[in-house]
Structures are given as C-alpha cells and as structure tokens.
Amino acid sequence: MKLLVICVGHRMPDWVDAGVQEFVRRMPRDAATQIIEVKAEPRTQGKPVEVLMEAERVRIEAAIPPRARIVALDERGDDLTTVALAGRLRRWRADGDDVVLLIGGPDGLSPALKSRAHELIRLSSLTLPHALARLLLVEALYRAVSLEANHPYHRE
C-alpha cells in the first residue's frame, strides 16, 4: 500500500517541510508516503468560492491515481482516535489499493470531490492552518503505522 497526501498549496514554512519530510522518511516501505502539492487557485476579488474550489478540484483529481481509495479531510468527517486510524490503515492495507488523503485549500474541498471520496475523516474540531494540518496528518499516519507494527510509540 502506498499513501499519497494530496494538498492544495505549496511553499510551506521550513519547519513544516522539515517535520513532514521527517515523518515521511520514517514510514515503513509497506506504507510508503508521498506528498503531492497542487496549486491553490488565486483568491482574487469577485471570484466566487465555488469557482475557486472547482479549479482546485480539477487539479486534485488530475493527481489521483486510478483505483485509489480516496479519503478526504473534512470538518464533518469521522473523528478518529489513533487506535481507530490504525484499524483503518489495517483495513486499507487488506484492500490492497493505494490510499489518497486529500487536504483542501483555504475554502476546503469541493462538494463534488467530497462526494467522490470513499470516506471523510477529520483531524480536529479546531480550525487548523493548512500547513499544520499537513504535518499533523503525516504524524498521525506514522503513529498509527507504528501502533500497527507494535512499536512502543503509542500510549493509551
């Protein structure tokens, strides 16, 4: 299984890039993780939010490989514990498809993209900056993979 994190936006602060790359580097081969950045649509005066999200949807969909399980991050998604995320990883691995996790732009993901997703999850009830959401997601994936491998990374 391969994990692809498709994020809207680029040019993250150095501390975000360093943290994300550290957790990506630590991931085991059977859960190799790749970050794919897609360009955010410029937020110019007068452009409706729907138009912005649609442009980003097209870019995101172009980056999704065929036959991948799509998991969208959304504030209304399932609220998972680390143990529950580890269980999802186990199920995704058993299904055999690559898993794509989507992080939207400033306005979130388009409704069409969310409806295409196999599942919706959320990282927090708090509003998170996109840079922090990216780092938090890869850390959570690493923690869940470590738990599945019986590494003493997680404490209940």
Give your account of this protein's structure.
This protein has helices spanning 14-26, 49-63, 82-95, 111-116, 130-148, and strands spanning 2-8, 32-38, 69-79, 99-103, 119-122. It has 156 residues and is an alpha/beta fold. It has a single domain, classed as SPOUT methyltransferase, trefoil knot domain (Alpha/beta knot, 3-Layer(aba) Sandwich), CATH 3.40.1280.10. Strand 3 (69-79), helix 3 and strand 4 form a beta-alpha-beta unit. It is globular, with a radius of gyration of 15 Å. The two termini are 26 Å apart. The model has no long low-confidence stretch (mean pLDDT 92).
Number-wise, the strands total 5
CATH architecture heading: 3-Layer(aba) Sandwich
Provide the domain count: 1
Q: Mind summarizing the main beta sheet?
A: 5 strands, parallel
How many helix segments? 5
The value of Rg in angstroms is: 15 Å
Average pLDDT reading? 92
Trace the largest sheet across and list its strands: 2-1-4-3-5
Summarize, please.
With 156 residues, this protein is of the alpha/beta class.
Which key features would you list for this structure?
156 residues, alpha/beta, Alpha/beta knot, 5 helices, 5 strands, 22% strand, rRNA processing, transferase, rRNA (pseudouridine-N3-)-methyltransferase activity, cytoplasm
